[in-house]
Amino acid sequence: MTAEERQVGSPVGGAAPQKQEVPPWRLLATLGTAGAMAGFLIVFVFVATEPAIKAHKAEVLRLAIQEVLKGPARFDTLFVHEGALQEQLPPGMDAEQVEQIYVGYAEDGSQVGFAIASAEPGFQDIIRLIFGYDSNTGATLGMKVLESKETPGLGDKIEKDMTFVQQFDAAVAPLVGVSARQSTGDEHEIDMITGVTISSRAVIRIINNSLERLGPLLESYNGGGSQ
Amino acid sequence: MRATTPRQDFVRGIWQENPVLVHMLGLCPALAVTNTVANSLAMGLATFFVLTGSSLLVSTFKRFIPHEVRISTYILIIATFVTIADMSLEAIVPDVHKALGAFIALIVVNCMILGRQEAFSSKRPVLRSLLDAFGTGIGFIIAMLMMGTVREVLGNGSFLGWSLFGPNYEPWVIFVLPPGGFFTIGFILLGLNWVERRKKQKPMVREWPEGVASEKAA
Known about the structure:
heterodimer, A: alpha+beta, about 25% strand, B: mainly alpha, about 0% strand
């Protein structure tokens, strides 16, 4: 060990006899400088990584919309504002703070349906999903989980168990969750996954609640002939 | 403090004083995110990055950090590197970031990292601290990969997503669930301790020179 190391090591050893009082301003200055440097570094990395993160999120959302609306020719974004769906972003508002709904169109310009993203608590944490909905027939067109921290191997079956996911391709709202044994084949019924009751029920609840909340808006949007 | 050679600083953390398998530090991520090999590797690399970066800064600025506020300063430095790792992972490998979830942020409270700063980097020169961080970081990655391999192979029948046993294999799901983490670490520690004990006992028998035993008996 060099003399320099010993010198640096000694005050940390605990039994330093010549303990010097460090002035408070030095403690403050150390923490202040360290904090400022940390802040600077974080801001730098944040600015550098933000475009990639945002682009990825937008791409994930775009793919999810394509999936739940079964590949529409194009889709538009609608903004939920003051109890109505608006095609333009309300002036003076940030697009990220306004709830958005997506409306998909087929090649011939006819409406395919709406894609609605919504989130509510599941078993472990918030489940965020997007689903397609045809307001003319009242049927769901598809469902995709966007974010969930459900138990790997159990709760995550709500996104990995295709038999469960595909039931949302043609179920009629309001949805009713039943266990596989009680299934009668009714169009409102969704067979829940055995052992994943809470997460399955959460998915059904999220869809029912968002339709209850947004259903009238969708109908008035279509009734208004603004297509 | 015990004097060590640079080689010892580096090698020690890899196996002999492996942070997870010997010191039992950083067990939280080792139990929580090792359900697949890919997750284990990503977590290991993120921790390696944070450990190396923090050791570099702590040993560089150790003279300017007063004893009274050293822990707060170390945590601040570690938290900065964790935030950088978190944002970089989200930008570069979003799927892995999603799989690791909250555990990346929790690297801040990994006692292995704070332990190395307090025990080593705050007292040693920069290069030695870097060697120590490399060794400990590699040791952590090795431990994570051991856990991840056992759990993914048994619990999912695959390695890095490649199916090993074909579609007829019934996965041992418990191994990818939290209890499987405890079982795996338990069996790995059991095996390692058994090997260590055998290694210690064997030379005593072997090195006994021939004829000594009979002389003693006589």
